[in-house]
């Protein structure tokens, strides 16, 4: 009985993945992370952006049709070092004062065994 119930739950979940029509999700800093790792010979730095908005959508059947449209508030950048964060905000890198926002779209994904690789522009 337990196995039958589990099978029904799995089938029910899979049914939501094969909906008819486009499925769209709103993205925000609450449900989406944009992070990066910068490496150098002496080590690495981690960081990201706290303020992100946009959408993720797919055709309701095939996860490889997943598309992202994301807007990033460049002022929300953070790293593990305040000095680096300030440098990344400077005209040497992102020039946040003159370029406060960044938009990115991803239109392609490939399906390896258990994960998706997304190509963004």
- Strand elements, count: 8
Return the structural class.
alpha+beta
Global outline: elongated
Largest sheet: 5 strands, antiparallel
CATH topology: Lipocalin
CATH class, named Mainly Beta
Rg result? 19 Å
Strand order of the largest sheet: 1-4-5-7-8
Order of helices and strands: HEEEEEEHEE
What number of domains? 1
List the helices and strands and how they pair.
Elements: H1 2-17, E1 23-27, E2 34-40, E3 43-49, E4 52-58, E5 67-73, E6 77-79, H2 82-89, E7 101-110, E8 117-120
Antiparallel strand pairs: 1-4, 2-3, 3-6, 4-5, 5-7, 7-8
Q: What does this molecule look like?
A:
With 121 residues, the chain is an alpha+beta fold. It has a single domain (20-120), classed as Lipid/polyisoprenoid-binding, YceI-like (Lipocalin, Beta Barrel). 20% of the residues lie in helices and 41% in strands. It contains two helices and eight strands. It has helices at 2-17, 82-89; strands spanning 23-27, 34-40, 43-49, 52-58, 67-73, 77-79, 101-110, 117-120. The chain has a five-stranded antiparallel beta sheet with strand order 1-4-5-7-8, with no helix packed on it. The chain has a three-stranded antiparallel beta sheet with strand order 2-3-6, covered by helices on one side. A hairpin with a 2-residue loop joins strand 2 and strand 3. The longest helix is centred in the first third of the chain and has 16 residues, at 2-17. The protein starts with a helix and ends with a strand. 4% of the residues are buried.
């Amino acid at each position: 009985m337990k196995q039958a119930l589990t099978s029904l739950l799995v089938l029910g979940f899979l049914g939501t993945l094969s909906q008819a029509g486009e499925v769209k999700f709103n993205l925000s800093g609450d449900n989406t992370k944009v992070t990066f790792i910068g490496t150098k010979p002496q080590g690495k730095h981690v960081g990201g952006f706290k303020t992100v908005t946009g959408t993720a959508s797919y055709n309701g059947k095939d996860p490889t049709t997943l598309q992202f449209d994301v807007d990033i508030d460049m002022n929300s950048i953070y790293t593990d070092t305040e000095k680096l964060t300030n440098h990344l905000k400077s005209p040497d890198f992102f020039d946040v004062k003159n370029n406060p926002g960044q938009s990115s779209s991803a239109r392609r994904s490939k399906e390896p065994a258990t994960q998706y690789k997304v190509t963004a522009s």
